[in-house]
């Protein structure tokens, strides 16, 4: 794993260089936020410490923040690391949050919800300080919660399927969306599958977006029933790819671009250019080190202009 000295020089193309971390005895300070116990191990198998994690998120903050700042968040927190299986999800603000992590309350269909959100790099680093590893944003901003900014399809393969089948499904989905006048982006999730996402102009409401996504999935299943399924029950997914469009709804979240995953080897959910799909070996092939090396050498994928559904 590259040393902290190597990591602190990472600069994202098209963004201001990340400031060198201020170091104190047994401490690390990033964006003015003190990281306690920086040498605590987050993952033995991934050889990742809290220092590594904090410096990674500081490096990729310019790439992450456009899609997570001012969005309700769900966090997978692992204060003791990921290896002891004590991680837990948190969506509501609670004790121990920093001053740059804010509460968000809203009501929908008679139910009230409480989430948290951040505005900037300080908030992101405070999430790491409190033990967050994974970051899962909503598809809408807190100031436009009824109008999602993206439509997401999660391609989740049955265990027995090859990754080539997932890649084929992603191409199929992209072509179908293009046939409807919609351009999309590609992301390896750091897990088993791929995400195909359509950037939206924030004009369509959740129900419309979910209904449209469902219609695309139903079309795919009707055309190739042996390959695709939309049922959540795992018993019905044998030998097929689960086309998960259910993330296009209130309270649904998805893994953020550039988020570290709390899994063996601590892979990263990484956005890709479509021309990289052919050579992609797995949805979890990029690690923290690989993601940092990538942003040093390659311009981040360009997202299509936000679109309105036809």
Give the key terms:
23% strand, DNA primase, PRIM domain, 25% helix, Alpha-Beta Plaits, alpha+beta, 310 residues, globular, disordered N terminus, 6-stranded mixed β-sheet
Would you write up a description of this structure?
- This protein is of the alpha+beta class.
- It has 2 domains: 4-138 and 286-297, DNA primase, PRIM domain (Alpha-Beta Complex); 150-244, 2-Layer Sandwich (Alpha-Beta Plaits).
- It is 25% helix and 23% strand.
- The protein contains 6 helices and 16 strands.
- The protein has helices spanning 4-7, 50-68, 121-129, 163-179, 206-223, 288-297; strands at residues 22-24, 27-30, 33-35, 41-43, 48-49, 73-77, 88-90, 101-108, 111-118, 132-137, 150-157, 185-188, 194-199, 228-229, 241-244, 270-272.
- The strands form 5 sheets. It has a 6-stranded mixed β-sheet with strand order 14-15-11-13-12-16, covered by helices on one side. Strands 1-2-3 form a 3-stranded antiparallel β-sheet, with helices on one face.
- Helix 2 (50-68) packs across helix 3.
- The longest helix is centred in the first third of the chain and has 19 residues, at 50-68.
- It is globular and about 60 Å long.
């Amino acid at each position: 794993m590259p040393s902290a000295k190597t990591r602190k020089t990472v600069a994202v193309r098209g963004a201001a260089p990340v400031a060198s971390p201020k170091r104190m005895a047994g401490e690390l300070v990033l964006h003015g936020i003190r990281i306690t116990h920086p040498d605590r191990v987050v993952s033995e198998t991934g050889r990742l410490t809290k220092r590594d994690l904090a410096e990674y998120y500081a490096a990729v903050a310019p790439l992450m923040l456009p899609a997570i700042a001012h969005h309700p968040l769900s966090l997978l927190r692992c204060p003791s690391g990921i290896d002891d299986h004590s991680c837990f999800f948190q969506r509501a603000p609670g004790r121990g949050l920093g001053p740059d992590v804010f509460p968000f309350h809203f009501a929908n269909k008679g139910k009230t919800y409480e989430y948290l959100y951040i505005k900037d790099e300080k908030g992101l680093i405070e999430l790491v300080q409190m033990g967050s590893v994974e970051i899962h944003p909503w598809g809408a901003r807190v100031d436009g919660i009824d109008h999602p900014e993206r439509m997401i399809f999660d391609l989740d393969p049955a265990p027995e399927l090859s990754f080539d089948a997932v890649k084929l499904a992603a191409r199929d989905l992209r072509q179908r969306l293009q046939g409807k006048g919609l351009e999309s982006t590609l992301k390896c999730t750091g897990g088993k599958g791929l995400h195909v996402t359509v950037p939206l102009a924030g004009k369509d409401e959740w129900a419309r977006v979910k209904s449209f996504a469902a219609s695309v999935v139903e079309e795919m299943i009707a055309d190739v029933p042996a390959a695709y399924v939309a049922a959540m029950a795992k018993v019905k997914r044998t030998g097929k790819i689960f086309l998960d469009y259910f993330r296009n709804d209130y309270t649904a979240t998805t893994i953020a671009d550039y988020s570290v995953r709390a899994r063996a080897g601590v892979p990263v959910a990484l956005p890709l250019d479509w021309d990289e799909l052919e050579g992609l070996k797995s949805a979890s092939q990029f690690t923290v080190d690989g993601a940092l090396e990538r942003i040093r050498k390659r311009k981040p994928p360009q997202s299509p202009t936000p679109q309105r559904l036809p």
